[in-house]
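Entry, Tuesday afternoon. Goal for today is a structural model of the target with zinc ion bound, before we commit to ordering more compound. Inputs were pasted exactly as handed over by J.K., no edits. I checked the ligand SMILES twice against the vendor sheet because last time a stereocentre got dropped in transcription.
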Amino acid sequence: MVALPKNGVIMKIEIKNAKLSDGSSQDVLIENGLIVAALSGAADVSIDGSRYLVTPALIDPHAHLRVPGQEEKETLETGLMAAVAGGYGSVVSMPNTSPAVDEPELVQKLIRDAEALGLARLFPSAALTRGREGKLLSDAAALKAAGAVMLTDDGGTNEDAGVLRRGLEYAHALGLVVSVHAEDASLRGDGVINEGHTSEHLGLPGNPVAAEAARIARDLEICALTGSRLHVQHLSSARGLALVREAKTRGLPVTCEVAPHHLTLTDTLFASERFYCDPVLKVAPPLRSQSDCLALLEGLRDGTVDCIGTDHAPHTTAEKQRDMLEAPFGIANIEITFPLLYTRFVETGKLELSKLLELMTSGATNMLGWTAPTLEIGSVADIAIFDLNTTKTVDSKTFKTKARFDSPWQGEALRGWAVCTIVRGKIAFDSR
Ligand SMILES: [Zn+2]
């Protein structure tokens, strides 16, 4: 660990010979929160960047920080510590908390409390409807003025299409993106895993791909009707992806994200010896088939997928130790998303490093209508430094998140671990 000055603030940082994603090297100099051409004096901290990959810090468009009201699962401090430990400098939090983030005061408090921590930047999304009930629209203008960056009822499924239409129209007028958890609730039923051979074999209630595809098809029609920006969250199936791809070719203003577990895990694992009916794999939407995983990877490559959202969803160990029917949906993954995808896809030649970084940085800013982050002079100094050479195995017991239940990737040897994350020009995480 680097010794911090007494006030905990590092003003001048130099990263010498920083290795960039395109293979080139440059010095990256940081002062007063910005990337500068020259420091005004000696650096407080000097980092040998030649050993590492240096990139704009990652941006997560979809994480559950559980605040307010579910602090037994995660707090802002543990969630944002986990984020910077994963190389993330910014996180968009989901509003399915208790109460739901549907009032401007709640948005303001989240931003204030997160800023006081000095970890990753927090950009709250707010509920599209009051209490996320899908019935009455929340006050989008007031929520935006308070700092909400997106509207979503994530977890809820916006069953009333007319309400979603009006929500999209208001959001459009305000320049806000609406993101949807695209599952038809009646088709999903009480499904806890993907509907298919494995669900039948195990006798568990299935959630069919049709639940996702049917809802995406409906929402794309509403997107076309309103001309409003629609973002499809945590897309899980080849069929859902094909619908988004086709809508993009028609020029609809739609974007989508994929989560790391849908890219790397399949429903057949539930029948394996290691994960037999194990709720650590229980997520919403559910893990699908190998062909869905491959289609989603193709979606990363061909640009159909705009960004990778972790859908980091912490729960207590006791909750995740209930049985398959009772345990909550969600995996804690924000600390390992980059090393997991780097090791599985970049090292194996399936995905370019620059593409992976684009999906984890500018993909989110483009989706939100923001300027893409860069390492150019004058840019804000939100920077992640990754070690692509050192192998470390996943051990959820060492996670910063409160959710230290067994990781689906427990014991997997990965490279690409974050060693240092700089946010607002200050070192927010350092494991060198
Ligand atoms: Zn969701």
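The first strand starts at residue 12 and ends at 19.
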